[in-house]
Amino acid sequence: MYEPIRAKSVHSMADRADFPHRSREEELNIQLAGHLAALLAVTDELGLEEPAECIAGQIARLRGTPPDRRAGLVGADRTALHRRALALAGRALVVAASRADTAAAILSAERMDAHTAALNEAPATDGPPATQDRHLLATP
Fold first, then answer.
1. Looking at residue 137, what is its pLDDT?
2. 31 vs 101: CA distance, rounded Å
3. Which of 72-100 are b and which e, b meaning 16 or more Cβ less than 10 Å from the residue's Cβ?
4. What is the mean pLDDT of the chain?
5. What are phi and psi of 81, to 5 degrees?
6. In sequence order, what DSSP letters do the residues of the chain get, joined into one string?
7. How far is CA 20 from CA 14, 66, 69, 109, in A?
8. What's the rounded Cα separation, in Å, for the pair 13 and 88?
9. What are the tens digits of pLDDT across the range 20-58?
10. How far apart are CA 104 and CA 140, in angstroms?
């Protein structure tokens, strides 16, 4: 009644493919190192040397090599930078917690606390929030 399938299944071919596969742990390492590298860039922009060195140490531990550090000073508003750093530290904390990396989780939580404190001390502005942070404030 039905004609048999004559071609090989594309699904079975993928199982035997010769390309490298990364484990979940490796993917989380890459993701955490990326979030920390972005946090390092913002921390360097803010001119916070001691926290930047701690973040660079964690990146070196995850990647096996120290990160390239080039502060691309753009002269952004410090409040916007603290907001960005707070968001990045939060993302790093989530990934660190999911891979049970205590050192990175503690560092991320400390950075979140520091940036929250800096935001609470910052003078209130009457204008709208920075355009890059509007997505954090929008409700679906």
1. 42
2. 13
3. eeeeeeebebbbbbbbbbbbbbebbeebe
4. 80
5. -65, -40
6. --PPP-SPPHHHHHHT--S----HHHHHHHHHHHHHHHHHHHHHHHT-HHHHHHHHHHHHHHHSSPPP---------HHHHHHHHHHHHHHHHHHHHHTT-HHHHHHHHHHHHHHHHHHHHSPP-SSPPPGGGHHHH---
7. 12, 25, 29, 34
8. 39
9. 778 888 889 899 999 999 999 999 888 888 999 999 999
10. 31
In the chain, the amino acid numbered 36 is L
| The dihedral formed by the CA atoms of 95, 101, 105 and 106, expressed in degrees to the nearest 10 | 180
